[in-house]
Amino acid sequence: MNQCLQTIQDYGLRSLGLGERLLPRSGFTLCEQVTLIGSGLIWNVYFAALALLFGFFLANALAVAKASRNPWARKPAEWFIFLFRGSPLFIQFFLAYELLVQLPRAGIDVLGITVQTSWMTRAWAGALLVLMLNTAAYSAEIFYGALRNLPKGELEAADAYGMAGWTRWRRVVWPTAMRLAWPAYTNEAIFLFHATTLVFFSGFPAFQQRGDALYYANYFADKTFNPFIAYPIVAGYFVLLTLGLIALFGLVNRRLNRHLPGAAKKIRYRPNLIR
Amino acid sequence: MLSHCTDPSALQGLAWLSCYLTTGNHMLFYASFGTVLLLLAITAPVALLFGFGGAMASRSRIAGVRWFGRIYTSMVRGVPDIIFFLFVPIALDQGFEWLRSRVYCDPSVPVRQGNEFIVCAAAKLPLSTSPEWVHQAYGIFLAVIAFAVVFGAFAANVLHGAMNAVPRAQLETAEAYGMTPRQVNRRILVPQMWTYALPGLANLWMILIKATPLLFVLGVEDIVYWARELGGAKTRAYAYPHPDWRLYYFLAILVFYLLMTWGSERIFDRIRARLSRGQATAAGEAMRKAAT
Predict the structure, then answer these.
(1) Helical spans, DSSP H, in chain A
(2) Beta strand residue intervals within chain B, DSSP E
(3) ABC transmembrane type-1 domain: from which residue to which, for each copy (chain B) (predicted)?
(4) Where in chain B are the domains?
(5) Which residue in B86, B148, B149, B170 has the fewest CB atoms around it within 10 Å?
């Protein structure tokens, strides 16, 4: 037990570069595997949380642009969504890495200030960017569908109240669209969370062996030739966190539907799509 | 190999490019697109079969079979698919080798020795003496199984939903005619469910297309592998030296996938329109209105 506490102290934050530098080489205990894989999970949560946060705003903008009548706004949004939904996330990671490596090493001069670019090729920034754009494209399609399915009566009611423009959008259109889109968006969030496992298997190298949960699980499975311990551990972690994610989004769903008695049903988790 | 390509260093411009793009390795690169298409062609029906079995099992009246079906379909949902892509091939490979080791090797020697998984040479799969293509084919075979297991679970979800969507009255009518449950399944349920399953299956096909680059993770020499091999910077030691061109190779792959998904979308639109013609659904109603 004490030994395990020591292991947690040594490796609990290994994926962030804190604690013991060297990974265990032989005689892997169950505790070491659980700790290191859990430590890698920090990255998965980091990628998912930030990509969802930024992607949400971008997705809203894209959905509005796609629903717009002005072709100058609609066409770029349509192309962006097609590009990211039509190609595999895996390829997007590779391509983004190769693109970001092309940036000048010394940095770019903007108005006399040198902007450093080397950090963009690191996973924490580059992969986050790809994940954010990707989830924005998928969510935008969901929000766009919701915008098209707004009940006609609610819009007419808003018109009857004399609302127009921004007021109408903020008070009626957007809340209703969110309410309609939320179950689908919950699934999208889960897919994105699962997609974070791809980061260290694609272009972005794991810097000083600071990888995500699957990176460490793969390390153990390769070293012990035994897939039956490490992979179920990751799977268990992911099931737990997925349930947490569903609970969190369920709370938001309850809030969005609070004016409709009985409408805030439990979100049914209807998966499951890969990119 | 083209005839004018004997001395690559003397070539310029387009001639150089035409020779460069027809080297043996490039031919393997083009062939690997075939590998992807082959994987799609094999996996799709196999996964559909797995899915059909899973959906049938989860509707079974025998509790054990029903639980197996339920666990199979829900297992793949909560866990990232890539974990299965990494897990299933190793687990299968070790399973096969363990079975063979019980037959061909001394059974008293344990397979797991500390951190090692060791079987005798006769039980190795594929045998170390077999040619390279057997190793490749075996890798693809394991990949197909892994894809079929994961996508079978997705398909089982879709088909299970479609079976529930067939109007209950239809099945009850069949029962009233005195058909056995097996006959109801075969004559009423299965023929009618496809209309309801098509949107989900179409979606699944798109996802399957986009999952094929994961072959690279499984160690198959697929398009991603060749793009990295060929695109990497080549020094003077090579016949065709060039800087790091991986960006262009990945762009080509991206275009390939965009074309695949775009084309599939067009085809599914057609099938959808065809299936909803004259149907008592919202889509069918819209078509009727548009026609008049």
Answers:
(1) 2-11, 30-67, 71-86, 89-101, 123-148, 152-160, 165-168, 174-195, 213-224, 227-256
(2) 112-113, 116-117
(3) 33-259
(4) 22-219, 231-286
(5) B170
Q: Is residue A27 part of a domain?
A: no
pLDDT at A106: 67
Class for domain B22-219, per CATH? mainly alpha
* Distance between first and last Cα of chain A: 41
- Asked if residues A78 and A66 have their Cβ atoms less than 8 Å apart, the reply is yes
- Do the Cβ atoms of B252 and A93 come closer than 8 Å? no
**Could you read off the pLDDT of A84-97 as tens digits, one per residue?**
999 999 899 989 98
Taking the CA atoms of B131, B137, B139 and B142 in sequence, report the sign of the dihedral they define. negative
Instruction: Give the range with max mean pLDDT: A55-64, B84-93, B163-172.
Output: A55-64
Give the integer Cα–Cα distance in Å for A27 and A32: 10
- Residues of chain A positioned with their CB less than 8 A from the CB of B82: 194, 197-198, 201, 214
CB pair distance less than 8 Å for B207 and A197: no
Residue in B77, B83, B253 nearest the CB of A272: B77
Report the alpha-carbon distance of residue A14 to residue A216 in Å, rounded: 10
Prediction ipTM score: 0.84
Residue from the list A95, A198, A235 with its beta carbon closest to the beta carbon of B251: A95
Contact between B213 and A82 using a beta-carbon 8 Å cutoff: no
For A205, the domain range is 32-256
Q: What residue of A is the nearest CA neighbor of B92?
A: A227
Which pLDDT band holds residue A138 (cuts at 50, 70, 90)?
very high
pLDDT of residue A107: 67
Count of domains forming chain A: 1
**Range ranked top by mean pLDDT from A244-248, B14-18, B214-218:** A244-248
pLDDT more than 90, % of chain B: 15
